[in-house]
Amino acid sequence: MPRPHLALNLFWRTFALLALLLAGGVLAWQQTFKVLEAEPRALESAQQLAGLVNLSRVALSDSDSINRVAVLSSLARSETVQVRVAEAHDRWQPYDATGFAKQLAAELRGRLGPDTVVARSVNGAPGLWVRFSIGDDAYWLQTSARPLSITSSGNSWWLLIALIATVLGSAAITRLINQPLRDLSLAAHRIREGEYDSVLDESTRTSEIRDVNMGFNRMARELAKMEEDRTVMLAGISHDLRTPLARLRLEAEMSVPDEQARQFMAQDIDQLDAIIHKFMDYARPSELQLQPLLLGELVDRAAQGFRDPEQIRIHSSVAADLKVWADDTELGRVLLNLFENARRYGRTPEAAASVEVTAGLSGTWVCLLVRDFGPGVPLDKLAKLTTPFFRGDAARTAANGAGLGLAIVEKSVQRLGGQLEIGNADGGGLFALIKLQKAS
Fold first, then answer.
1. Which CATH superfamily is domain 10-154 in?
2. Which of 19, 184, 321, 431 could connect to 425 by a Cys-Cys bridge, CB 3.0–4.6 Å?
3. Which Pfam families does the record match to this protein (predicted)?
4. Residue 345 CA from chain centroid, whole number
5. Burial class (CB in 10 A: 0-12, 13-18, 19+), 80
6. Do residues 318 and 357 touch, judged by C-beta distance below 8 A?
């Protein structure tokens, strides 16, 4: 089944959704507060500006023409509020460009009269300008617009703290939510590796998680019992079959006068005994003690069991000082099954099977490559090679085994904490690539 191009684990997906939700909530509340603050701020600002305009109007109205000039001169020197005479050629821009500005301008017109003009710049000078009239004369009152505007700059520190708290809170909540699922995933992985003693916490307060953990523990106990029963059954069957096979072999050698028939019967009995031995290897429990081992010595030792050059020739070029974390017996079983598979299926009637064994480093892994030069396997059957009791008869020569050799190899490599890849080699033949942890 193809994997999606963009895959996120559950933690990051939940974290992203929670962070997006909470950050959106923070921004929405900040915008809501800003909108709710606009109307009372506009009323307050309009009241202050209207008071300044009325005060200026009273001061100018009660002065004669000479004193009015003095009053205007005094107001022009003020840093916060200035009053100047409005000219007919003045150019101004309307102030009501935002929602807050529209509310402020409307409130000022309601307090000062409909002919009041509110501008944000006059003759290129920015500010908040209010034009009012005294008789036939018109005046501009100028003040700074910054204290009267609604911005988020003053609250940026609060917004930043809220967003940081949102991210940290989302991470903590996501970790808390996903921890039981992570524990379940790790326990399922251990079950897949054959560790049936994995136990999940059944005392958690979350009822759904508690029910799942209890069901998983029951399943693990049932699988452990089934595995134990299967091992005992296969061991009993193998033991019970080997006794009559030994008697058959003895009786065939003593009572069959035909030498050829006696030889064929002995070969059939040996094949049955080898199949029983495969059953025992496949059903063997996975209790291993990994230790640093010299890979070259293990390969040479396994190759010594195949001494007939007419059936198989093994060429090894593994460095003498290359070490891996492995179990001596288990890794030896892997090599023996690979060599036996090559001997059985990689040779032809005219030539012996040729096997090349090489090894190299890839980061913290040691890559062991075992390759033969036989006919290979069709692509549609490659994925089934490690299935118990599957034999690619159509692809390789006479398949008379139990179909457990490569299944045992895969299971043993998993026990060793390694990885197995099987495929057709360039130029013909089958290769098995085994990755094991490098030991110093």
1. Sensor histidine kinase RisS, periplasmic domain (3.30.450.300)
2. 431
3. HAMP (PF00672), HATPase_c (PF02518), HisKA (PF00512), RisS_PPD (PF16524)
4. 41
5. exposed
6. yes
